[in-house]
Specification:
The protein has 628 residues and is α+β, with helices and mostly antiparallel strands. The chain has five domains: 17-164, 2-Layer Sandwich (Beta-Lactamase), CATH 3.30.450.40; 180-339, GAF domain (Beta-Lactamase, 2-Layer Sandwich), CATH 3.30.450; 343-381, no CATH class; 401-520, no CATH class; 527-626, Efflux pump adaptor protein, beta barrel domain (Elongation Factor Tu (Ef-tu), domain 3, Beta Barrel). Helix content is 42%, strand content 28%. The strands form five sheets. Strands 11-20-23-22-21-24 form a six-stranded antiparallel β-barrel. Strands 2-1-5-4-3 form a five-stranded antiparallel β-sheet, with helices on both faces. Strand 4 and strand 5 form a beta hairpin. The longest helix has 34 residues, at 2-35. It starts with a helix and ends with a helix.
């Protein structure tokens, strides 16, 4: 009992020291509120302060409110933040879902350092749990509760101080102000996407919308330039398709459209009732959506689309204020888009003007020349040719039979050599089997003796001896069969009709061969395959099943057809070149064909534009060597 009381007093003393050490941190957090330019900045600075005080290598804070989402992290020390990120953020998510603080001790191999994770929800007095703070810190089993209480007190202070900060006014709270310090310098942007990116993200952060998007109108079609919170706009995404359809509906009607939930007794403006906006509204699970046309004169040049946070609505006054604030930038978007026109588009517009000037009375020779040039240019630009890839090739047998030494032996004689035609069953060579013959004779004699022993035991009416004699006879019979099989293996025969493509053993007669050592390679004639050496630049064009033609150096006047059968996945080095080897089936039987014949093959890929077939090698060379 005295020991337990002493431990309790020691623990309380340690906790008091911890709170005393944190008192300076509390003052720093309150001081940060006065210097922070926004709530996001305050959370970032407060997170850094807490992480430094608790010597945390990784800390993260997440806060979600009706007007914005804040997700910040702080990292220090030599470790990679990715090492901690997934574990701490997952731990924080569990704590937010449970609605209470959590702590977990971590074990560090081969180290006396004790670490743990702590996750504490952020509590707002009116909105409940809307986020949390998680970090990694030093702690042991004895001070887990003290550390959790310390972090809880810090999180409660951060939450209270953050509530007192002035937040940007939402779209439903009165007059709309855009951060003109960032947007008024339209001339500094080099592309319409840069300006659109700045507009959408500024509107989202300033007005508290869930999503803001801007699209440029071209011939009644909308090209999405930017969606807030997204670095790249994927045109095939389900949400993007529905948003673009609603924006084009706004272009078609030429007026402000929106769809949202509204009650008959509510002062909130009702929806305009357009079908595509209803589909977008339903796809976002009932969120309020709106599209605003941005005009330059009488022409709609861009569309601004908005999606409000859950359970929030638009008013006509808010939407009109947003339109008045953003519409001046429509001219800047159009100007940047025209300034980005490339050489092809300029040439197209100049050609159109020249064509209009050409369509004048008479001048038939000029018109005929222009017509021929136009037809050739049209064929060159819009016509197509068979695109063929030319690669080296070599004939190979479709099947290759490998004959090896069945057991260690001496080569007695050779009947054929490489290049000789053979037929199935023909003797190719023989191994020395004299010792096997002697062993066979010995076993044969012993087997005869064993048979006599069986007869004697059966005549003597001795069942036990008879069974033993029969077993001994079976043993000699099995050994005899093994020797007979090895004698039969000593004669190497051709398994198929064909030709010997490898194996010259004439100078190795009476030499010793180890088991498994190669003797001959026999290829059946009439069944061939083509080995294609495809360069790297063409491998992406090839697929199994493509047709082609090949001609060998021996018979260049007789091209033969083939079809690609398989493509090996790995590159190989052939004659100092990095190539991919493909195989093709060849259904011909010509007496002049021999294994290893080389030639040239042309693989027909598909129909391609004439200009591409003409210039694609030059284009690829320039791109590769000049990085264009």
């Amino acid at each position: 009992m005295p020991s337990h009381a002493a431990n309790q007093v020691q623990s309380e003393t340690k906790a008091d020291a911890e709170h005393g050490r944190m008192s300076g941190v509390y003052v720093d957090i309150v001081t940060l509120a006065s210097s922070a330019s926004s709530k996001r900045a305050f959370y970032s600075l407060a997170l850094r302060c807490v992480a430094s005080a608790l010597e945390s290598p990784y800390a993260t804070v997440y806060m979600r409110s009706p007007t914005e989402v804040i997700d910040e992290e702080h990292h220090s020390g030599p470790t990679d933040p990715g090492f901690w990120r997934s574990a701490v953020q997952g731990f924080l998510t569990d704590a937010i879902a449970a609605g209470q603080p959590r702590a977990k001790l971590l074990s560090v191999r081969e180290s006396s350092l004790k670490l743990g994770m702590i996750a504490v929800p952020l509590v707002a007095t009116q909105e409940g749990i809307d986020g949390g703070l998680g970090l990694v810190t030093r702690m042991t089993e004895q001070d887990v509760s003290d550390r959790v209480r310390t972090v809880e007190s810090l999180v409660a202070l951060i939450s209270k101080v953050a509530e007192s900060l002035e937040m940007p006014r939402s779209a439903g709270s009165g007059q709309v102000h855009l951060p003109h310090s960032a947007l008024s310098r339209s001339a500094e942007f080099l592309a319409p996407k840069e300006l659109a990116f700045s507009l959408t993200n500024s509107l989202r952060n300033r007005l508290g919308f869930e999503q803001v998007a801007i699209g440029l109108v071209t011939r009644n079609r909308v090209e999405l330039l930017s969606i807030s919170g997204m670095d790249d706009v994927r045109s095939k995404g389900p949400g993007v398709v529905q948003m673009r359809a609603a924006m084009e509906e706004c272009v078609d009607f030429g007026k402000l459209l929106f769809c949202q939930k509204s009650d008959s007794w509510s002062a909130v403006s009702k929806s305009t009732g357009h079908r595509l906006h209803k589909q977008w509204h339903n796809a976002t699970r009932g969120a309020a959506v709106a599209s605003i046309p941005l005009n330059t004169g009488d022409r709609c040049v861009a569309v601004l689309s908005l999606r409000h946070v859950s359970n929030s609505s638009f008013t006509l006054e808010d939407l009109q204020q947003i339109r008045d604030a953003v519409e001046p930038y429509a001219s800047a978007l159009l100007l940047l888009e025209r300034a980005q026109r490339g050489l092809v588009r300029h040439a197209y517009e100049s050609a159109w003007e020249g064509f209009a000037a050409l369509v004048q009375p008479r001048r038939y020779g000029v018109k005929l020349t222009a017509l021929l040039i136009t037809l050739f240019a049209g064929w060159f630009l819009f016509g197509s040719l068979d695109y063929e890839v030319t690669v080296p090739c070599a004939l190979q047998p479709a099947q290759l039979r490998h004959l090896t030494v069945p057991y260690e032996s001496v080569l007695a004689s050779v009947a054929v050599t490489a290049g000789d035609p053979v037929h199935a069953g023909q003797i190719l060579c023989e191994l020395d089997h004299q010792e096997l013959d002697l062993e066979w004779a010995e076993l044969r004699a012993e087997y005869a003796v064993a048979e006599q022993e069986v007869q004697r035991a059966m005549a003597g009416d001795s069942p036990v001896e008879a069974r033993l004699a029969e077993a001994n006879a079976r043993l000699f019979r099995a050994r005899l069969a093994i020797v007979e099989h090895r004698i039969d293996q000593a004669t190497i025969r051709s398994p198929v009709d064909g030709v010997v493509v490898d194996g010259d053993l004439r100078e190795r007669v009476r030499g010793v061969f180890r088991q498994g050592e190669p003797l001959f390679q026999v290829a059946p004639l009439g069944d061939w395959k083509l080995r294609l050496e495809v360069p790297e630049w063409a491998i992406s064009e090839l697929t199994v099943g493509l047709p082609g033609r090949f001609a060998t150096h021996a018979r260049p006047e007789k091209p033969e057809a083939f079809r690609v059968a398989r493509i090996r996945p790995n590159a190989e080095i052939r004659d100092g070149r990095n190539v991919f080897v493909a195989e093709a089936g060849v259904n011909i039987d010509a007496a002049w064909m021999r294994p290893g014949m080389e030639g040239v093959a042309k693989i027909t890929v598909d129909r391609r534009p004439v200009w591409w077939v003409t210039f694609h090698h030059i284009i690829n060379y320039v791109r590769l060597h000049l990085w264009l």
